[in-house]
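Page header: ASSEMBLY MODEL / two components / 774 residues total.
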Amino acid sequence: MALPLKYNYRNVLVRWRSTLSTVLGIALVVAVFVLLRGLARGIESTNGNTGDPRNILVVRKGSQAESGSLVSRDHYRTVQFLDGVARNQAGEPVVSAELVMIVSAARRGAPGDANTLLRGITPRGMELRPQVTLVDGRWFTPGRREVVVARRLAGRFQGFEVGGSFKAGAERLTVVGHFDGTGSAFDSEAWMDADECRSIFDRDMYSSLLLRPTDEAAGKALIEKIQNDKRLSLRAEREVDYYAKQTNTAVPIKYLAGFLGIAMSIGAIFAAMNTMYASVASRTREIGTLRVLGFSRRAVVACFLIEGSFLAMIGGVVGSVLAWAVYAYVVVRGITFGTLDFQSFAETVFQFRVTPDLMLLGVLFSVAIGFAGSLLPALRASRLPVIAALKSL
Amino acid sequence: MTIASFVVKNALRNRRRALLTVISVAISCGLLVTLLTLQRELTIPPESEAASLRIIARNKVSLAQPLPSKQLSIIEKIPGVVAVSPFTYFGGNFREETVTSFAQFAVDPVRFKNLIVEGRIADGNYDDFIADRTSCFVGADTMKRYGLKIGDRMRFSGTFYPVDLDLKIAAVFQGTVDDRGVFFHHKLLDELMGNPGTVGTWYIRVASAEISNDVIAKVNDAFANTSAEVRAETERAFQMGFISMLGNVKLLIGSVSTVVVFTLMLVTVSTMSMAVRERFRELAVLKALGFRRRELFSFILAESFGLALVGGALGIFGAWALWTGIDLQKLTNGFLLYFEVTPRIMATGGVVAVFLGIFSSISPSIAVARLSVVQGLKTLD
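Prediction written out in full:
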């Protein structure tokens, strides 16, 4: 027969001091674990959330990021008239030749500069990216030195507010609006007219082409055609695939989360063990009594395992809620995080997120800590000789 | 029985608990030391005396924007400039790698010789590098990592530049802060690119550290209001710029460290209270025998201090031995280069352990001070 759970519950409450410190310790470990996973997830989802599965992105073969790619005007012309490229109502091919420049701008509220991506974009390119919407001000006027920046960047750089201006090369660009990229990689970019951008930076070549094929089959054929054309030496892939590959930035944070998770959980297991050993030691007589009453060794083991896991689970729940509270605070205050993307050499802005499944993972993690920490003490409790246990003080 | 042996006996009477406490303190202290080392690694670029004499000039727009190569003759004439070479980041991938952790730079070999004064030739001959336009000058760490020798070929596929390189190793250098780089002839890059007349950055050495700010200002002024404005800064400032772009890393690691220390505190405090609670009776007896509160307090303090210090020492030296012993550069594919556990970091860990010892004895000591003899004698467990 199993021991009633009420026994564990009351025991936990009686030893509230050591219970509290164990619960808090595990809660902190879980909170750190969940927050770091949330950071890594935030970076990953930024890239995973970008692009339209129908679009095809074309860059130079061998280049890892758009900012390091060069596409000549000849190639642009060739790609425009390939079979399978969709046409809009006016009969023009739906291909957007774009320029992606790295521009260093002064940080807001901190010394120094950071790189940001400036995209010279065409009206067609904007149609191909419906996930980007204007939230403040207006779009830029072609032919003018005007930019629209991502709202999330506005808080990170000087002069990125609507009406502000910043220097790119010898020219000063005026910010006329803010757009929202709904958590995509475009939230780290500033957009301006492509031709204006080319003239400012004196660039003859484009960086990339974004195009829409007529249908899925045509898209596949088009990708193959561009890839295999030796004269072009271009790389074509679905826009979503391109962004999905740009997730290397999250790798160091993931390693850090993994390392800290392991190291801190080992520490937490020892702490839980300590608490559980102490609670076994102080309950020696009780355990003897239980055994005399006929509870089996197995019931005693189960009892302590449940108690330890339950204790840890409370810690896990508290920790997950704590992590969520940090997340909620960050969202309410509108704090964004930025880190250097080693592929584009520009700052990637991301929002870390604590989702229900991450919180659940945190709780499971805590239960595992509790189980591991109470296994040895539980076995010890079950092995106490009955007579000696009853005699002990 | 002396007082010291009394304290030691007490600390070890529950060996299992003593061991668990020591281990959990050790792990937390080791973790703290690791985090501080990581923070140092990520936020402080390695410093060398020669680096303070060097200036890197890049395009004001950003690092990715090239500079016209005709700027060379103007920079050369600026007083205080001892040497200047083009310095162009190639950003290629070695062999079949998708991420190559060491950098390749195109330089002018003759001019470059006067720039890296701290390095020495470990193998091969620098003159061979100057003479052969398709050769390269490689860091000893990279040679060792890939098992290369003089005369071997290194192939790179360009990621920033639409060309590939096939270079012959002519000489090996050692003794700089980062012995990983590969340097090759700028002329080769120019040729492959069809002579675009541009360079990535300028690498400049000044005569003395005092005049470097002056030279920086002069370089910046020389190209003000031209089509390619320049932003010059010391090599160190340049590296710090990269680090500032890493973003909130410092804050992140700082807050995690704080949580680690806090958790550490919780663990030891609760263990010490447990240890003291289970011997309330003995402490009451000691009180009855005439020991004063101060003395009882010093027993407890000595015990928690001892446990915390042993745990701290184990953790700190354990971390030191671990990070000194394993080749992290190889393990992290070059992401972590030095990961040096400095005496300063170890001392910080030690201070935390000491504070922990003191702090965790406070609450049990208060409990003991409050305890009346009769009450204590009545306590069962």
